[in-house]
Amino acid sequence: MNRTDFIENEKIRVLKLYTSQKHIEGFQSKYKFMEWFINQLNKQDFKCYYCETSIFDIRELMEKEKLKKRKIGHGFRGPILEIDKMNNDLGYRPSNCVLACYYCNNDKSYTLDSEKYKEFFGPTRKLFFDFLIKS
Q: For residue 48, which of 3, 99, 9 has the smallest C-alpha distance?
């Protein structure tokens, strides 16, 4: 899938899935939220904020079954970048959110400081993903 098609799919997905009040409280509307999401996707060059791995590489690893997806409800976590609050106390607002791969987002969760996670764990995860890509 090329980047243009990916963005169009993400616009539709974000408007459907990120409409709850908790996600849009700092974004004014689901459309402002979607606009922020797409801008952030481009700003981060389609990479996880923490490990800086491309979502396209992560998808390829999943397709080759080198990474597992997590089944949730009627879908899966893993093949998309997820919104992450850098500081959980500040909620969902543009200045406090980044896009993260499922693996970093799940690992960091609510227990680790965003910048410390990026500094200490992000590079190691990137090394692991690069290893999987080459193997």
A: 99
- Residue 119: CB atoms within 10 A of its CB come to 11
- The structure's pTM equals 0.91
Please report the sign of the dihedral spanned by the C-alpha atoms of residue 100, residue 101, residue 106, residue 107.
negative
Long-range contacts of 82-85 (CB under 8 A, 24+ apart): 83/18, 83/23, 83/37, 84/49, 84/108, 84/114
23 pLDDT more than 70: no
Rounded to whole angstroms, the maximal C-alpha distance in the chain is 45
Q: What is the CATH number of domain 3-134?
A: 3.30.40.220
Classify residue 65 as left (phi > 0), alpha (psi -120 to 50) or beta.
Answer: left
User: What is the per-residue pLDDT across 110-120, written as a single tens digit (0 to 9) for each?
Assistant: 788 899 999 99
Q: How far is CA 77 from the centre of its chain?
A: 10
What confidence category does residue 20 fall into, taking pLDDT thresholds of 50, 70 and 90? low
Residue 51: what are its φ and ψ, rounded to 5°? -95, -10
Look at residue 74 and tell me whether its pLDDT is greater than 80. Answer: no
What is the domain partition of the chain in residue ranges? 3-134
